[in-house]
Amino acid sequence: MAAIEVGGTAFGYDEAGEGPAVVLLHAALGDRRMWDAQFTALAATHRVIRYDRRGFGETRGETGEHAHYEDLLALLDARGIEQAALVGASMGGACALDAALAAPERITRLVLLGSGLTGQPWPDHMLADIADLTAALFPDGRLARYQAREREVDPADVRAMAEANIRYLVAGPDRDISVLPPEMVARVREMCEQVYRHDWTAPQWTERIPDTRHRLAEITTPALVVIGTSDARGLVELSAHLAESLPQAEFVELADTGHLPSMERPEEVSALLRKFL
């Protein structure tokens, strides 16, 4: 394990290259391995950092109260980085936006791929889809018991939860999983199973969550908003909202692409990043 200690917590971490700093922030479906292609591609011209956020991958979720964007800024401090571009996928994008509000002078560029937004409730149709999926998988309510750490975890349930995420988000609600490269599906499955094994067994901690949704107009950092058109409709709608609300945003739609374009279309995403950064 490569690690960097920040505030008493060891974060799984990789760094390569020289030049302007870029930090890659992973989605909640996985960990820093989702950036394998971009980590290598960008290291030719940039100082690239990727790490596992608190509670993911090789980073423990310590008890207490924490904020992901504060961890990010503390990590920059620990590496002596005054300014960096942030590339965030899904909830990694939400973390990037939070950091851009907390320390705007430190963030030079924002790239948001299928981004979340802290404080923004998911639309009713997306909540209904997720409720239907989880009800089908856990009709006896054992999901709530897993989340409360009240039940020993069945590996079959971990696998089923990962598969549901792959079908609904990674492929997208209107595509079959067979459209994805098999090696990509295997890697996402491995990461996502680890997410749920950890989420249902590790010590619980409280995340301090800022409300960023009403402050987007304050973020004047140049931004690139990227969305796969086959992603869940709520995320497609959210990316369009981000592109409209951020004062200096470019908007790129990737046709026939799901929630993890960095893995589904690695060369195209790497090229977009090199051009924007």
Automatic annotation (TrEMBL):
<feature type="domain" description="AB hydrolase-1">
    <location>
        <begin position="20"/>
        <end position="266"/>
    </location>
</feature>
<dbReference type="InterPro" id="IPR000073">
    <property type="entry name" value="AB_hydrolase_1"/>
</dbReference>
<dbReference type="InterPro" id="IPR050266">
    <property type="entry name" value="AB_hydrolase_sf"/>
</dbReference>
<dbReference type="InterPro" id="IPR029058">
    <property type="entry name" value="AB_hydrolase_fold"/>
</dbReference>
<dbReference type="Pfam" id="PF00561">
    <property type="entry name" value="Abhydrolase_1"/>
</dbReference>
<keyword id="KW-0378">Hydrolase</keyword>
<dbReference type="GO" id="GO:0016787">
    <property type="term" value="F:hydrolase activity"/>
</dbReference>
<dbReference type="InterPro" id="IPR000639">
    <property type="entry name" value="Epox_hydrolase-like"/>
</dbReference>
<protein>
    <submittedName>
        <fullName>Alpha/beta hydrolase</fullName>
    </submittedName>
</protein>
